[in-house]
Amino acid sequence: MNGTTALDGKVALVTGGSRGIGAAVALRLAEDGADVALTYQGSAELADEVVAKITAMGRSGWAVRADSADPEAVCGAVAAVADRFTRLDILVNNAGVGAVGPIEAVTCDQIDRVLAVNVRAPYLYAQAALRYLVGGGRIVNIGSCIAQRVAFPGGVLYATSKAALIGFTKGMARELGPHGVTVNLVHPGPTDTDMNPGDGDSADFQRGFTALGRYGTAAEVADAVSYLAGESARYVTGAELAVDGGFAA
């Protein structure tokens, strides 16, 4: 890649960046000029494929295994990335898990894991990143349209976890504003990924809740993250940006 791009010289960490929305975000930030580290929990092969694409763009990429349910792994991943790249400018809290079912059927183990990955981990990732983020730093959290509109039963636990990110984002924005660090939240709607394919069994059902009548793409979510991570969003903080096709309209 030749020439100067928007995020030249920046280093980004994308959690859960080996596939789906996380992979699209990692690749878009690299396209914008950033060196990008990503965490993965399961497939090293998929993570390596994303890193190879980042490298092919002329950027530095790195994948580090970290289970977001493990506090030590979370803090260790941030420290390892900062050590390898000597800085950290952008944190994208994307890693997440879900559990769908009637409220009476959800187990304590499911509650603990969903809240650990979707709520505690973003807090810990941000907490660990603060020592490296300086003026102009960015934190972008990935929420869900379900946090704004629970349109069907069975999503109580997931909605609870993603709604928690609203308060987290606003509180962090207020606290970090004096330091020149912005914190924002992106709410994807039904998005075509391997976890929720646009041709899956529930795809028509989910599409029906959107104003545009279609699934989004991971690249469309990545576009929003790119904006919030860049200089154009320097006066945007504590904001929720819905990329949901009108799901919450």
TrEMBL record:
Gene3D superfamilies: NAD(P)-binding Rossmann-like Domain (3.40.50.720). It holds the Pfam family adh_short_C2. GO terms for molecular function: oxidoreductase activity. Signal peptide: none annotated. PANTHER family: OXIDOREDUCTASE, SHORT-CHAIN DEHYDROGENASE/REDUCTASE FAMILY (AFU_ORTHOLOGUE AFUA_5G02870), SHORT-CHAIN DEHYDROGENASE_REDUCTASE FAMILY PROTEIN. The keyword Iron-sulfur does not apply. The keyword Glycoprotein does not apply. This is NAD(P)-dependent dehydrogenase (Short-subunit alcohol dehydrogenase family). Belongs to the short-chain dehydrogenases/reductases (SDR) family. It comes from Streptomyces zagrosensis. Transmembrane segments: none annotated. CDD domains: SDR_c (cd05233). Keywords: Oxidoreductase.
